[in-house]
Amino acid sequence: MLNRETKTITENQATRLIRIRQVMDRAGLSKSHIYFLAAQGKFPKSISLVPGGTSVAWLESEIGDFINQQIKARGWEVDHA
What we know:
The protein starts with 16 loop residues before the first strand and ends in an 8-residue tail after the last helix. It is built from three helices and three strands. The protein has helices at about 20-25, 30-40, 60-75, and strands spanning about 15-20, 45-50, 55-60. The chain has a domain at about 15-65. The chain is α+β, with helices and mostly antiparallel strands.
């Protein structure tokens, strides 16, 4: 997972990038709502794929963490088995 203090990621962590369609499918949110939540700091930020371009993606692990946080907010435990 991303270490927010140093903004580094360890090599042994999954660093698969996923595009907006996959993010929408996994999170069950619309594109506009994803960007709305991200602007408020309530959703993982996207990563630019090309300097100065508009292509972006998200770390798959951060999207999974977001979903797990929503599950935990309901009082459920997340089983990582």
